Amino acid sequence: MHAAEREKLILEALEPTGFVSYRDLETRLEASPATIRRDLSRLEEAGQITRVHGGAKRAAHDEDTAPTAARVSLLGTPFDQSITQNLAPKQAIGRAAAALCEPGEGIMIDGGTTTLQMCPHLAGLDLQVLTNSLHIVNALLPQAGTRILVPSGSVFREQNIILAPSGEDSMPRFHAPKLFMGAAAVGPRGVMQDDPILVAAERRLMDRAEQVILLVDSSKFVSSSGAIVCGLDEVDVLITDSAILPDQADMLRAQGVRLIIA
User: Fold this and answer.
1) Backbone φ/ψ region at 30: left (φ over 0), alpha (ψ -120 to 50), beta
2) Helix 22-29, helix 3-14: angle, nearest 10
3) For residues 59 and 50, what is the distance between their CA atoms, to the nearest angstrom?
4) Which PROSITE patterns match (predicted)?
C-alpha cells in the first residue's frame, strides 16, 4: 500500500470520533508501527492531524466538523437493560475495585454498569471522584465526604453519561492515580467498546491516569468486533469473576496485566 493510500485511510479512521489509536491503525493499515509513525508525522507536518498519547486526533481547525454528542446516539445495550445482566459478578467486582482505593485520594470512574457497583463501598473514604456518569453521581451524592467532579458536554440518555464533542477537552484539570473503567469486550486485540465515541472519551480519561483498572465480568471475554480503546499492554489491573477461563487469564498475564478474581 502506498503512503498516500495509508494517509487517506488514517484520515477516514478519524471521521467518526476525531481520534484513532495506534492499535486500530495497525489493524486497518496492516503496516508496521514505524511506518505508521512516519505517516502520522507527515500528516502532522501538513497540519491535518495532531499526534497524542496512544494515537492521533483531528487537527484543531477540523474539529468544528466533528459529530457532536447532541446529534448522535450511542451503539450498544442501553444502561437500564444491561444493569440487570450478570449482576452478582458485577457486584463482587465493584467491591474488589473499591478495595483498591486509598482514603482521601482522587480517582476517576468511567460510566458503566460494573463501575457503578463500586459506589456503595466508597462511603467513608472521603474520595474526590471525577466521573462522566450521572448514575454514579446519583449513587455518590448521599456520601457526604465524597467530592464529585463532572466534565462538561451533552448527556446521552441511553447510557446516562456526559460526553463532549470530539476533540474538545472538557475535563477539569484533574490527574488521578487510578482510572476505573469497563468495556464491551476484551480479547487479544485489546479492550473494545461498541461505539467509537466512547473510545475518544475513555482515551481522554486514560491520559489523566497513572493506572488503568478494568472492571469486566467473565462474559466480556468473547470474540467480538468493536472499536479498540487500547491494547492489553495499557491495562495495569483487570478485575473479573471466577468464571474466567484459564487461557483467558494466561492471555492477560502474558501482557503484564495484574489479574484480580473477585
Assistant:
1) left
2) 130
3) 5
4) HTH_DEOR_1 (PS00894), HTH_DEOR_2 (PS51000)
Per the document, the length of the chain is: 262
CA distance 236 to 255: 9
Number of domains in the chain: 2
Residue ranges of the chain with per-residue pLDDT less than 50: 61-75, 167-168
Domain encompassing residue 162: 79-261
CA 40 to chain centre: 23
Which pLDDT value is given to residue 17? 66
Task: For residue 252, give the C-alpha cell.
Answer: 492477560
Give me the phi and psi of 14, to 5 degrees please: -80, -15
How do residues 5-32 score in pLDDT, each as one tens digit? 888 888 888 876 677 888 788 888 888 8
Residue 182, in any domain of the structure: yes
Q: At what angle do helices 3-14 and 33-45 cross, to 10 degrees?
A: 80
Q: Which of 65, 90, 107 is the last residue of a domain?
A: 65
Strands 128-131 and 147-149: parallel
Query: Would you state the pLDDT for residue 179?
Result: 97
Last residue of a domain, one of 37, 65, 93: 65
Domain contains 72: no
Q: How many CB atoms sit inside 10 A of residue 189's CB?
A: 17
Helices assigned H by DSSP within 107-213:
134-140, 196-206
